[in-house]
Structure formats: C-alpha cells, structure tokens
Amino acid sequence: MFAALETINSRPKPFEFYTASDLWTDEHTSEQMLMFHLNEDIDVSSRKTEFIDSSVAWVASRFNVGEGIKIADFGCGPGLYAIRLARRQAEVTGIDFSRRSIQHAQKAADREGLFIHYVHQNYLEFETDGRFHLILMIMCDFCALSPTQRKRMLDRFYTHLEPGGSVLLDVYSLNAFDRCEEAAMYEANLLNGFWSPNRYYGFLNTFKYEDEKVVLDKYTLIEASRTRTVYNWLQYFSSEAIEKEFTACGFTIEKLYSDVAGLPFDRKSREIAVVARK
Question: Which of 24, 111, 259, 261 is 20 to 30 Å from 140 at the Cα level?
C-alpha cells in the first residue's frame, strides 16, 4: 500500500506523460465533457453563452468574417463558435478529438441547414490541402500542449493559412499561475462520478512547476477492475513568452488582448489573447 501511495503522489517531469485521449475519447468522460460544453451558465469546457456571443461578434468584426472567409476552429467541441460563424456566411472547418462532440455539432448544423465541415480527429494530426483566412484555438487549448506539440501546432497553422491569414488563440497568464497552489485530495467517486459510471476512488494531486510555469492536475482513478492515471497539464505564459513562440514560427504579432472578445490587454489579466499574422 505504501508503495502505491508513493506512486500516486509522485511528481513527473513537465509534460512527461500525455493522456488527452482518456478525457476526450472515453465514452463516459466524453459524455460528461459534452454536458459541461452545453451548460450555458458555467465556464468549464466552454465559456458562458453570453461571452461566446460577444466573442463571435468581436471576431466577426475584427477579421471581417463573411461570405468567402475560410475559418478553421481547432478544438471546436460541439461547434459553439463554428455554428455562429457559419451563420455569418463563413466557410467553417471544425476539428475535434471527441466523436461525441462532433456528432452533436453536426446535428446542430444540419438542423439549421448550415454546411460546416467537421473533422473527428486529433488536431495535432490534422492535414489538409485547403488554406484558411483565420485559424482559431479557443478556451486556452494551446496551454494543454507540451513545448514540442506547441511548436508543431504553430508550424501547422502557418502552413494551413493563406498569405496574410491570422491566428487567434488564448492562453493563461502568469497572473493565473501565481494564484495556483499545490494540493492533494482523495475522494470516493471524485468529481461526482465524472470519471466512470462505476464506483471508484480518486486521488487528485496538483503540482506546480515554478521554473517552467506549468501546473499539473494528476488524477489517479482506482476501480475494481482497473487503475489509471490522467494528466491534465497547463502551461502559463507571459506576454513575452507567447510572442516568442509565435515569432519563432514565422508569425508577426499584430496585437494582444485580455480575452477573445477583444478586451484591451492588461498585464493583470488572467488570460492573454493573441492575434498573429502570417
């Protein structure tokens, strides 16, 4: 038992393990995530409806969204941004790891008679001959990627953009990092049964990596028939650090904001939104 507890409470190296598939492709957890996406009153998988409406209105104005504008939404979830942009006559492609979310998004588009090209795929592996005027990665998805994955993602964005095309994404700031604290907790059916329909015991270890500006939520989930560990990594950025990653991949930073609804940049903000141009 002692050895098992030592393993549960061990601190891995930053981004040593990557378990995104356990969250987005598992039948039970993907259903829970979709429920969070569609809850209009909470900021969990998606932001609140009021914010999304404001964000889409700003995106449409900022990037002149309309007929003929081609947009790719990486990590589109159930299409909350994609469908709103398609209503504005944009040609939208949505890519997401969750089959359940893509199916929901497609049904919603079909009900409105909108054509949105949805792709059920890990966006790290997405390839296309098409080129886009605008690429989105919303809800700080970029933060969940390792440095190597982020470099690969930005290179892919650059390839998939039209000359002069733009990327809009958001990340967590160092102000948000400073508010994080290390913790350890144990609970039967941790997160109210989020991780399994069966009875389980859950351990949550939150580790903070000061030098790398990374936080890990490490979930160890013990059921009668299996034990598994899920790693939820988040990278936090200064404005200088996120600009450096973009410029290293050939982008020009046009402007920074405090969110993807166009709030003016404030160094005290918990998020940084980046507009970069190819």
Answer: 111
Beta bridge partners of 214: 209, 235
pLDDT tens for the chain, 278 residues long, are 899 999 999 999 999 999 987 777 788 887 877 676 666 665 555 678 899 999 999 999 999 999 999 999 999 999 999 999 999 999 999 999 999 999 999 999 999 999 999 999 999 999 999 999 999 999 999 999 999 999 999 999 999 999 999 999 999 999 999 999 999 999 999 999 999 999 999 999 999 999 999 999 999 999 999 999 999 999 999 999 999 999 999 999 999 999 999 999 999 999 999 999 99
**27-172+239-277 sits in which CATH class?**
alpha beta
Q: What is the DSSP string of the chain?
A: -HHHHHHHT--PPTT----HHHHHTSHHHHHHHHHHHH-TT--SSS--HHHHHHHHHHHHHHTT--TT-EEEEET-TTTHHHHHHHTTT-EEEEEES-HHHHHHHHHHHHHHT---EEEES-GGG---S--EEEEEE-SSGGGGS-HHHHHHHHHHHHHHEEEEEEEEEEEEEHHHHHT---EEEEEETHHHHTT-SS-EEEEEEEEEETTTTEEEEEEEEEESS-EEEEEEEEEEE-HHHHHHHHHHTT-EEEEEESSTT-PBP-TT-SEEEEEEE-
The model's pTM is: 0.94
